[in-house]
């Protein structure tokens, strides 16, 4: 079989399970040879992706949100087959920040047709209807054990990770940005800024920070343009450090994040980097592609041109 479709039926507050019959019909109607599997638990998409890549599938198609795409990308990149297998994305999640960063359509009809038209036009030669993008790699701690994983859109520690953790508990669907905003309101009253040690391309800094975001793509949190100059093909990560800002100061600058103008604030610093290490005497959570994966200390680096992505032809 040519393509493996990995479907997360729970994505988008279970909107994916409702959309899947239509998506399946479009892919079948356009002649794409594929089979599919549903994910059953956290981490399952990565397992399915790794096995599919090793079994010889030429395309892995993610049907779900940012977390689903991240898991599939991690499974593909850890399979050793990333150079010969392409990733297609049909976004049905809540935030869909990676799709925004990539400039792909958030309409699943268009996303399906992008994949199937490329297949028809290039007779399955994935090198002719795909492009290579950068990925990120991160090392972190879970239960005292050091672990590693790949990410695609971005990662962060501090306030944004605490908000992501709280947002993951928002179960109702109120729009793309609503879970993040609800998480922010839950975390903000009690959150305290963190003293951290930063190592940026070998340069060491000790700082008190609200949040540190390491972005490959421009968007996070359901449409916030956190790293306005980020590019998934520039072989760099965009480091955005929000310094020792108070709560009222944060609320004043927060609307500017949606426009990407927050980087002009005196307590916000953005720069292009290749590797970053973050440590603290305090507990710091790590989010990768919007999902809480572990705690610090954290090391992150760019993996240039690592992931082959189905794109416009």
Features:
Tumour Suppressor Smad4; globular; Rossmann fold; 2 domains; 8 helices; 313 residues; 15-stranded mixed β-sheet; alpha+beta
Concise summary:
With 313 residues, this protein is α+β, with helices and mostly antiparallel strands.
How many helices? The count is 8
Distance between the termini: 23 Å
The CATH class assignment of the largest domain is Mainly Beta
Order of helices and strands: EHEHEHEHHEEEHHEEEEHEEEE
Task: Tell me, briefly, the overall form.
Answer: globular
Total beta strand runs: 15
C-alpha Rg, in Å? 19 Å
Q: Let me know the average pLDDT.
A: 91
CATH topology of the largest domain: Tumour Suppressor Smad4
Number of structural units classed as domains: 2
Protein structure class: alpha+beta
Helix content: 25-40%
Unreliable stretches covering 5 or more consecutive residues: none
What does this structure look like?
The protein is an alpha+beta fold. It folds into two domains: 3-128, 3-Layer(aba) Sandwich (Rossmann fold); 135-303, Tumour Suppressor Smad4 (Sandwich), CATH 2.60.200. The protein has eight helices and 15 strands. The chain has helices at 15-29, 44-54, 66-77, 97-102, 108-122, 159-167, 178-187, 247-257; strands spanning 3-7, 34-38, 59-64, 86-91, 130-142, 145-151, 154-158, 194-200, 203-209, 211-215, 237-242, 268-273, 275-279, 285-288, 291-310. It has a 15-stranded mixed β-sheet that branches. Helix 2 (44-54) crosses helix 3 (66-77) and helix 6 (159-167) crosses helix 7 (178-187). The longest helix has 15 residues, at 15-29. The model has no long low-confidence stretch (mean pLDDT 91).
């Amino acid at each position: 079989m040519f393509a493996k479709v990995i479907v997360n039926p729970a994505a988008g507050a279970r909107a994916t399970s409702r959309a899947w019959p239509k998506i399946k019909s479009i892919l079948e109607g356009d002649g794409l040879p594929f089979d599919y599997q549903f994910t059953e638990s956290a981490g399952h998409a990565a397992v399915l992706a790794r096995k599919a890549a090793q079994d010889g599938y030429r395309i892995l198609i993610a049907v779900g949100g940012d977390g689903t795409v991240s898991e599939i990308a991690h499974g593909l990149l850890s399979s050793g087959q990333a150079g010969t297998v392409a990733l297609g994305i049909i976004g049905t999640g809540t935030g869909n920040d990676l799709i925004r960063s990539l400039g792909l359509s958030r309409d699943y009809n268009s996303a399906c047709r992008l994949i199937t038209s490329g297949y028809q036009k290039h007779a399955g030669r994935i090198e002719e209807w795909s492009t290579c993008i950068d990925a990120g790699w991160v090392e972190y701690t879970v239960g005292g054990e050091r672990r590693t994983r790949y990410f695609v859109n971005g990662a962060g520690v501090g306030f944004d990770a605490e908000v992501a953790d709280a947002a993951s508990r928002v179960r109702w669907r109120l729009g793309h940005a609503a879970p993040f905003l609800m998480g922010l309101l839950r975390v903000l009253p009690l959150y305290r800024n963190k003293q951290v040690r930063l190592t940026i391309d070998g340069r060491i800094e000790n700082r008190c920070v609200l949040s540190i975001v390491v972005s490959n793509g421009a968007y996070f949190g359901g449409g916030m343009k956190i790293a306005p100059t980020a590019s998934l093909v520039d072989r760099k990560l965009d480091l955005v450090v929000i310094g020792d800002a108070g709560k009222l100061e944060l609320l004043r600058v927060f609307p500017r994040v949606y426009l990407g103008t927050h980087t002009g604030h005196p307590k916000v610093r953005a720069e292009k980097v290749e590797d970053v290490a973050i440590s603290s005497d305090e507990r710091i959570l790590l989010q990768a592609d919007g999902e809480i994966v572990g705690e610090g200390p954290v090391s992150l680096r760019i993996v240039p041109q690592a992931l082959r992505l189905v794109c416009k032809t």
